[in-house]
Recover the amino acids of this structure.
């Protein structure tokens, strides 16, 4: 039997400097933590199970896998980009928009480098991946190594957690750890399922509140200063231009550079969002912008556990849109409603 995942293992992984290697180790760590937690609370997906899948997906963004191919597919697929961006973008691609050895490719990099948005997303997702594991992964490893034998031990364990709501406080983690402990003692299968969902969703709330800055940063497409675009285009087209003509030529070319940069930004945002908006699970894919095509299990169709009912009402308040898809992943209420439905 393999040795249990330890705090030393967490610290070792957090210290890995290479973001790609660290992500792979984080994904494996979540798998091991998921198995260890299931050994305590019983069968059923716990938060670490979902975290392993999400970390694996994050790794594709960190490694920038398929991002350029997604970009190219958007340019070639009707209906994926809006209006003139689609038609003009496809012409740009044929002319060498993404090929740095072509004249257009060299010019576009000077005006707007599409890979800059991908690199920003990669860096932001890597920071978020590390941020969550260093906190929640470490606390779960500590919980598993110091599993409370009773209420007094749980109180002592949770004394190390910060009071209040995220991003500074860890109140949701304190509640979640207590509910995981309740699952162990509960004999009713229906109540156990609701307590497990409650604990998972509480950790999800904490995680997503903490990740809000990184998610916004990952989806943000850098906007070049309009006043700089003309000079960039001038430098790309006429690098040997006499200094006295710099300002005149740059000003006259600004009208051309601005729409080209806007096309690049729009296509990059589409590509990054599409890459973000797919979660690949063992039995298929979930498109984050679409409603989940599945029903709740019988044990979770009706909620009787008061704390779970209150949390779900907060996640999806009365009068909320009757859909689960999150069309804007940077919007916390949309994102959290989708995640709660996946957990349920």
């Amino acid at each position: 039997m393999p040795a249990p995942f330890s705090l030393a293992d967490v610290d070792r992984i957090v210290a890995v400097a290479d973001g790609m290697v660290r992500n792979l180790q984080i994904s494996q760590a979540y798998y091991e933590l998921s198995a260890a937690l299931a050994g305590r609370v019983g069968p059923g997906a716990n938060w670490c199970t979902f975290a392993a899948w999400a970390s694996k997906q994050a790794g594709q963004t960190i490694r920038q896998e398929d991002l350029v191919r997604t970009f190219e597919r958007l340019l070639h697929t009707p209906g994926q980009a809006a209006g003139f961006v689609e038609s003009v973008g496809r012409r740009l691609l044929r002319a060498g928009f993404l090929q740095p050895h072509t004249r257009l490719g060299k010019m576009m990099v000077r005006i707007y480098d599409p890979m800059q948005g991908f690199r920003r997303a990669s860096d932001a997702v890597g920071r978020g991946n590390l941020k969550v594991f260093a906190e929640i992964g470490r606390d779960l490893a500590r919980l598993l190594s110091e599993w409370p034998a009773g209420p007094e031990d749980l109180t002592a364990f949770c004394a190390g957690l910060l009071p209040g709501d995220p991003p500074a406080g860890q109140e949701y983690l304190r509640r979640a750890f207590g509910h995981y402990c309740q699952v162990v003692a509960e004999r009713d299968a229906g109540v156990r399922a609701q307590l497990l969902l409650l604990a998972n969703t509480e950790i999800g709330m904490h995680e997503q509140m903490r990740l809000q800055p990184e998610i916004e940063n990952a989806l943000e497409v850098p906007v070049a200063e309009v006043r700089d675009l003309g000079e960039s285009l001038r430098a790309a087209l006429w690098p040997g231009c006499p200094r006295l003509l710099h300002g005149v030529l740059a000003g006259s070319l600004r009208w051309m550079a601005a729409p080209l940069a806007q096309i690049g930004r729009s296509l990059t945002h589409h590509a990054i969002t599409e890459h973000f908006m797919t979660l690949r699970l063992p039995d298929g894919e979930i498109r984050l912008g679409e409603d989940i095509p599945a029903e709740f299990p019988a044990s979770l169709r009706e909620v009787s556990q008061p704390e779970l009912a209150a949390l779900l009402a907060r996640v999806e308040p009365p009068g909320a849109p009757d859909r689960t898809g999150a069309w804007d992943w940077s919007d916390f209420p949309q994102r959290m409603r989708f995640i709660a439905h996946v957990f349920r």
Remarks:
- Confidence is low (pLDDT under 50) at residues 78-86.
- The chain is about 70% helix and 0% strand.
- The two ends are 31 Å apart (CA to CA).
- The first strand starts at residue 278 and ends at 281.
